[in-house]
Write a structure and sequence with these properties.
6-stranded antiparallel β-sheet, alpha/beta, elongated, 8-stranded parallel beta barrel, 26 strands
Amino acid sequence: MVNGTMMQYFHWYYPADGSLWKQVKEKAEEIASMGITALWLPPAYKGKEGGATPGYDVYDLYDLGEFDQKGSVRTKYGTKEEYVEAVNALHEKGIQVIVDVVFNHKGGADEKERIKVIRVDPENRNVFLGGAFDIDAYTKFTFPGRAGKYSQFIWDYKCFTGVDYADDLKESGIFSIANEYGEGWEDVIDTEKGNYDYLMFDDIEFRNPAVREELKNWGAWYLDQIHFDGVRLDAVKHISPKFFNEWLGYMRSIKPDLFAVGEYWAPGELPLLLKYIDATEGKMSLFDAPLHHNLCNASKLGKDYDLSTIFNNSFVSVRPELAVTVVANHDTQPLQSLEAVVEAWFKPLAYALILLREGGYPCIFYPDIYGAHYKDKRKDGSDCEIFLQACRNLDKLLIARNRFAYGMQRSYIDHPNCIGWTREGIDEHENSGCAVVLSNGDDGFKDMEIGKRHTDKVFTDFLQNHNAEVTINNDGWGRFYALAGSVSVWVIKN
C-alpha cells in the first residue's frame, strides 16, 4: 500500500507556448520520484481562441491539437501527438492520468442563428424580464477544420439553454433560449443567483437526449484515444447531477475503475456538497472547498485563528473517502476569479494537514513545487505582477507521506494555537509512523501517544525545523514540539 497523491500539473497562467505536454514527458520520472501517483492535466482540447487559452473556453472536444482551428493546430499545451506521448510517459512511471472535462458550456461558435430568447435578470436567474424576442446569436458549431472526422454532430441552438450575447443588438447579458426541452433553466443544486445553471458562453442543454448521447460518444472516444484513469469534472454546481449519473454510469461500463472528482466550489457550504453527493449517489468525489476556506482564513488570522476548529464543517471530516483536499488551485491563485490565497507562511502547515492525515485524497498545486511568475490585471483594471514561490518543505512533506504516514491515527486537535496527531505506522512500511505538531502562535508542544511498538525509539524532526530528540516511553507516549508559526514531522531517527 502506498499513499496516493494527486498533483495539478498546471496553473492558469502557464505559458501559452505549447510546451506543457513536452515538459510532462520530460519530467515523468521526476514526478514519480516526488511520490506523486496521479497527475491532473488541463483541458486538452481546442478553446475558442485556439492555442492562446487554457481550454476552459472549450470549442471542440474532439480537437486535441490535431486540426487547424481557431488560429492554430496545437492547443495551449501542445499537439495531440505530444499529448499522447506525455500520457504514455506517465503511465510508464506508474502515474495515473486525470483529465479535465468541461461540459458546462461551449464558446467560439462558427455560425449565427436567429433564435427566440427571453432576457434574464443576471442577479436572479429565475426572473425573466419581458416576453420572448428574436436575436442573432452564435450558437452553431460545425467545426469546419475537423470536417466531420470522429463525429459529424452539429451543435445548434437546440443544444443550449442560454447565451450571453446578442450579436445584432451588440448587447451582452443573459438570454434564456426558448426551445422544446423545457422552459428556463435546468434543475441544479445551487440556488445562488436564484438558479445557477447558467455560467458563461453557450450553456449546454442536457435535457436534449441527442446532446447526452454525443457527450457519451465523445467520452468513449476520448478514453480510447488517451487511456486516462480518471476525470476532473469542471463546474459541476452548474450542471444537473442527473446528467453525471448517466455519463459516469456509461463511462464505467467501459472502464469500471474510472476515478471522478467534481469541482463543486462552495466555500463554507458543506450542506451543498453533501446534497450533491446524495444527488449523484456517491459516484464522484468532490474538492474540499470548505476546508480550503478554513486554511485560507487560518493563514490570514495567524495566532488569532483557533486551530482546534480547522476541520470544522469540512467535507473531509464527514466524507473522507470522497474528499479531494487542496491548498491552492488555478481558480484560487492570485488574480483569478475565485482568488483565495493561503499565505506562504502557513502553506507548509496546510500541506501537512492534508498530506499526513489518513482522511482525504490530497492534491498539490504546480506553483507550490515549481513556483510561478506572471502578469495580469486586477479587478480595478490596474496592472499587477505576481511572483509565487515554491512552498517550503513541500518536497519533504511528500516524502513523509510516502514513507511514514501510515497506520492508526490519534488526533490531538484540542488547542487554539498548537495541534497535532500521530500515525502509528505499519509493518509493510519499515520505520513508518510519525508525529506531527503545528503551531500558529508561540513555540509549542503536544504530549501524544504514538504506540507501544515505538517504545524506547528516538524521534527527530524530519523537516529539521526543531533540533530536539524525543524518546518514546514505555506507554508509547512522547512530548513532541513545534516552533512558532511552524510545523514539525517527527520520525524514527536514522
